[in-house]
Amino acid sequence: MYKYIWILVLIIFTSFTSCNKPPKFSDDESLKIAFSTDTVAFDTVFTTIGSSTRQLMIYNNNEENLKISSIRLEGGNQSQFSINVDGLSGYKFSDLEIYSKDSIYVFIRVTVNPNDQNNPFFIEDRLIFETNNNEQTVALTAYGQNANYIIADQEIKGFPKFKIIADSLQEVHWTAERPYVVYGYALINSYGTLVIEPGTQVHFHNGGGLWSYSDGQLRVEGTQENPVVFQGDRLEDFYADEPGQWDRIWLMEAREGHGHSIEHAIIKNGFIGIQAQCFEKVNRAPLNIHNTIIDNHTGIGIYTNLYHIKASNFVVSNCGNYALALTGGGEYIFEQGTVANYWKKSTRTTPSLFFNNTYQNPFDGNLYAYNFNFEMNNCIMYGNQEEEFKTEFHAGPDTTYIFNNSIIKTKRIDNDTNYYQCLFNVNPKFVNKEFNYHLDTLSPAIGLGDSKYATGLLQYDLDGVARGNNPDAGAYQYVPIVEE
């Protein structure tokens, strides 16, 4: 009986193997492969930093199986591009089988070698495919950008890794010639000063930031035409509006006569835009913020702890928690500003504006309450929450806040003396509530402001438009569209 079973098994196996003949591949020279694109283009890439990966699809739209005899980079192993096929990296691959109506993925990256150029420069290569004596090509293009690299090289327990870029009694200038790419924290040491000149681009790697230690000084000196920009270090279009790419600008207490200042800056796509806090002693000078946009942060736009801030012609927009969290007491004057929080990347449960007067000392761990004084003039504070204003005040210290000639999203109108000539829960009618905070034609903010707050530098709005004798609330003065 066993003899017959083995014969049956042999017959079945022979029949099975005879039905699985090796596939045939056509050598017809009229058959070609197709591609998802004829050019794989990369956005600007910092030198020495690899790009994100691009994908190329190869299609066999023919009725016959084909064998691609060669896929190679024209630049060979000297190319600044690299390819990955079937999980393997290299610059040349041979004898790739592609069945009828099937496809193959090719993944491409580029790492640009540095040179002596300041402006972005063009690099290119070609992917060459050979199939049945047919040569087909796909172009590869990218722009390279040299940069000044700041690499953290020190660490103190309890603090992030950092590199000192302005030491005690040094004044260091960052210029617009080349962007700055920061890994870790760039640290301004006590009695050091960093001046960031007009048009400078500062890019932070994931988790990185700019840090001014106690008694250090940051001066950001952008202009209307050439603002200073702080953002992440990924330049691809996908990351243009992606929040949380870096950590924060962290400012400790400044010494009298040497306060921090931020003029004509764009601070975007981080975790916290600006964190200003006392650390070792009482802050002796205000942080002045003027003509500045703080946008698209996963945490907080401006977070303070027992600080003094004067802010004007500012926009704080789209933050995952608070737009303004002013804590631990302090003194604050906000004028001609727009707070617009329409965050939609996740569920926001916190209000846009939050005050408290308690401060936890980092050395003894005790909680202290301090005076809190806040004034907001000719401003808009609005968002997509039902309540956008909250306070948590400890009894004892002097605590005052007042809103003048402003639009406010709140139901807690607890004391008439806190508000003068304000509008409550009235849609300010922005041109676009997600990214354009200029006023629409029917905005109730038009003419709401008081001219006594629109003096000096505030005679002009964030765009440089004159406010005249009838200023609007918010950072932007409405300009009627003149039809030709």
Characterise this structure.
With 484 residues, this protein is mostly beta strands. The strands form five sheets. The protein has a 25-stranded parallel β-sheet that branches. A five-stranded antiparallel β-sheet has the order 1-3-8-5-6, with no helix packed on it. The longest helix is centred in the N-terminal third of the chain and has 18 residues, at 2-19. It has two domains: 34-144, Immunoglobulins (Immunoglobulin-like, Sandwich); 147-459. A hairpin with a 2-residue loop joins strand 9 (121-131) and strand 10 (134-145). It contains one helix and 39 strands. 4% of the residues lie in helices and 45% in strands.
Secondary structure topology:
Blueprint: H1 2-19, E1 34-35, E2 39-46, E3 54-59, E4 66-73, E5 81-85, E6 88-90, E7 92-98, E8 103-110, E9 121-131, E10 134-145, E11 148-151, E12 162-166, E13 171-174, E14 180-183, E15 185-188, E16 193-196, E17 201-204, E18 209-212, E19 217-221, E20 228-232, E21 249-251, E22 261-268, E23 272-277, E24 287-297, E25 300-319, E26 324-335, E27 338-341, E28 353-356, E29 358-360, E30 367-369, E31 372-377, E32 380-383, E33 389-392, E34 399-404, E35 407-408, E36 419-420, E37 423-424, E38 430-432, E39 436-439
Parallel strand pairs: 2-10, 11-14, 12-15, 13-16, 14-17, 15-18, 16-19, 17-20, 18-21, 19-22, 20-22, 21-23, 22-24, 23-25, 24-25, 25-26, 25-27, 26-28, 26-31, 27-32, 28-33, 31-34, 32-35, 34-36, 35-37
Antiparallel strand pairs: 1-3, 3-8, 4-7, 4-9, 5-6, 5-8, 9-10, 29-30, 38-39
